[in-house]
Amino acid sequence: MVGSAKARLVHSDIPIPRESRSKIARPPGPGAARALRNFMVPTRAPWFLAELERDYPEIAHMRLLGLNRYVLNAPELIVETFTNNAHELIKGPVYDALKPVIGNGLLTSEGPNHLAHRRLAQPAFHRDRVAEYSHSMVELTLAHEQSWSPGRKVDMSSEMTAVTLTIVGRTLFGTDLSEDTGEVGPALRKILHVTSRYVALGPKLWNFPSPARKESAQALATIDDVVNRIIAEHRAAGDNGDMLSLLLAAQADGDQFTDAQVRDEVMTLVLAGHETTAMTLTWAWLLLAQNGTEAQWLREELDAVLAGRPPTMDDIAQLPRTHAVIAEAIRLYSPIWLFGRRMLTDVELGGWQVPAGANVMVSPFAMHRSERWWPDAASFQPTRWIDAAGAFDEHQPGVPRGVWTPFGWGNRMCIGENFAWTEAILVIATLAQNWSPQLAAGAQVQPESAITMRPKGGLPMVLERR
Predict the structure, then answer these.
(1) For the residues of 268-315, what is the DSSP string, one character each?
(2) What does the domain layout of the chain look like in residue ranges?
(3) φ and ψ at residue 310, rounded to 5 degrees
């Protein structure tokens, strides 16, 4: 298993440029020791990037483990880099650290290979197909709700992981994963926690034996067993029209996808297809528990529109407050807290020469919490997303382009954005009608930068009926 992970680590669709220009003027920024000290601590890294956004409002340079990294904090530079210079970028070291886990799937592939994979996956996320999925999203949420009882203490991050994992299994793979969540959820948490270290310290650390690598390999083997079982069941059952059926029927350069390629795509969708939404829902429950007035504001809408019945896709347009709660949860606790790219050629940004091989990074966590763009930025204010007519409007906060980047930016934006919005809104609308979970007494909640933004040690809550 370790050998397979190491082989995936070194794979690249196109040559990776190495920066060779050491003597070049660079923007100001933190020293290497400070950068390393903060990036090594998962509970510090997001706040460190927020400090850089405040102290270096345009662009900051830092040298981290032999790599030059440029943190973009000006909206116009983010747009210029990820839109105008999109053809000069490939995925950076942040994504390299994921390769041993998810391989060369949609998230990590490059060039023509990525385009082929994206074209293949696109139909599975079309609005009409998401509308079909919406029935399963609600049905599976209701089924999970049957396990809830008043007074029960739960880890809400595990609860939301279980819901979203079963939804991904049913909608994209036509598979029932409800019996696997008890195994897969903890394994994913272990992988995400360990992989986050390799994001900070460099993915090549996968090459060195350690207890963390051994634990991660064991967790990965658990998930690989589930993924391989899903694939085998599909091969036996034949085409049923879901995403995995498309993968199994796909042709790549005249040949069918190999088992390894199918595995990589399934693993990518298992991880990326449920983890970010699970964390969005987790943080939404915390914020609602901490802000009673806003929670009541949400439930007034649910009572008026749904009157106790399960929501449908058609109801989403009539649930602007629910939409706003999800948007505000993403703003304050961006599941994708950092994304980056590697420059293929020299590019000038903000008057500075950024050489080929250097890495540019953007922190949605920092940009979404910046007082420069968001009044009372640290406060949970879902009303900031509601326009004068009472409708949800993603442009209502009035921030410049490049500030609000919940699903990335440019030509590599998340293909599942519509799926994620729909799922998060329907899950919250389904459960919040009847439940008002409260933070467990004495719980200390700390955001932690794994691959996604997670609550360190989970989110202990007590289930309470309204």
Answers:
(1) HHHHHTTHHHHHHHHHHHHHHHH-HHHHHHHHHHHHHHHTTSPP-GGG
(2) 2-462
(3) -65, 145
Which DSSP state fits 466? -
Confidence at 1, pLDDT banded by 50, 70, 90 = very low
Contacts of 269 (CB under 8 A, 6+ apart): 105, 106, 168, 172, 173, 243
N residues, the chain: 466
- Round to whole Å and give the CA distance between 50 and 61: 14
For residues 130-148, b (16+ Cβ closer than 10 Å) or e, as one string?
beebbebbbebbeebeeee
Cross-strand pairs, 347? 354
Choose between 269 and 256: higher pLDDT. Answer: 269
Give the span between the Cα atoms of 178 and 114, in whole angstroms: 31
Exposed/middle/buried for 225, CB within 10 Å: 0-12, 13-18, 19+? middle
Report the distance separating Cα 156 and Cα 97, nearest Å. 27
Pairing of strands 359-362, 438-439: unpaired
Q: What is the pLDDT of residues 231-267, one digit of tens each?
A: 888 888 777 778 888 778 775 455 566 777 888 888 8
25 vs 424: CA distance, rounded Å: 45
Under CATH, which number does the domain 2-462 receive?
A: 1.10.630.10
Average pLDDT, the chain: 87
pLDDT per position as a tens digit, 3-23: 565 555 555 667 777 777 678
3-class SS of residue 406: strand
